[in-house]
Design brief:
Strands 4-3-2-1-7-6-5-8 form an 8-stranded mixed beta sheet. It is α+β, with helices and mostly antiparallel strands. It is 31% helix and 31% strand. Strand 2 and strand 3 form a beta hairpin. The chain contains 4 helices and 8 strands.
Length: 173
């Protein structure tokens, strides 16, 4: 590997499960009220409230993929070492000090994968002295995914690298 692979370490905004459940129930009730209940039995205020809930639901369903995740650092992979820079603190790890690299692969970013910035790809690095690093990285496009894959197929990393595809991933790693 003659080049260096570089990507961003990010933090994607996560919503509380209780809010998601409450909003999901409201979304179902609004759909029932607007589309299944007889039109002459509908209250105009509840009709507008249902419409607002449906529009908010559409925003959370489709619009959240257009919000860029918060960048908290940089991940670099080169021939000799891995550099992890989070919040201005830089840590260099030599490849011979690595015990394992584990990737939870979701997908790369594109219009067809519902995220233009990249999906949740989690990288877990364990060193021989017990240090563990667990973070989310962005793979912006197919070219970046291929570059990352070729960097991980480096002779020293090949035996230490494992990955698992998350269930709803649409592309192969």
């Amino acid at each position: 590997m003659s080049q260096e692979f570089k990507t961003e370490i990010v933090k994607t905004k996560e919503y509380k499960k209780s809010y998601s459940i409450i909003f999901g129930v409201l979304y179902l009730i609004a759909n029932f009220y607007l589309f299944l209940l007889e039109k002459e039995n509908q209250n105009i205020y509840l009709k507008f409230l249902s419409l607002i809930i449906i529009l908010l639901g559409a925003y959370f369903l489709f619009g959240m993929s257009f919000i860029k995740p918060k960048v908290i650092g940089i991940f670099k992979l080169s021939e000799k070492h891995i550099t992890i820079e989070i919040n201005g603190v830089e840590k260099n790890i030599k490849l011979n000090e690595l015990e394992s690299i584990f990737l939870k692969y979701m997908d790369y970013g594109s219009w067809k994968t519902h995220s233009i910035y990249g999906n949740k790809n989690y990288l877990k690095i364990t060193t021989k002295n017990g240090e563990k690093y667990n973070f989310e990285i962005l793979l912006r496009n197919k070219e970046m995914k291929t570059e990352f894959k070729s960097a991980l197929n480096n002779f020293e990393l090949n035996e230490k690298f494992e990955f698992v595809k998350i269930n709803n991933s649409r592309t192969e790693f």
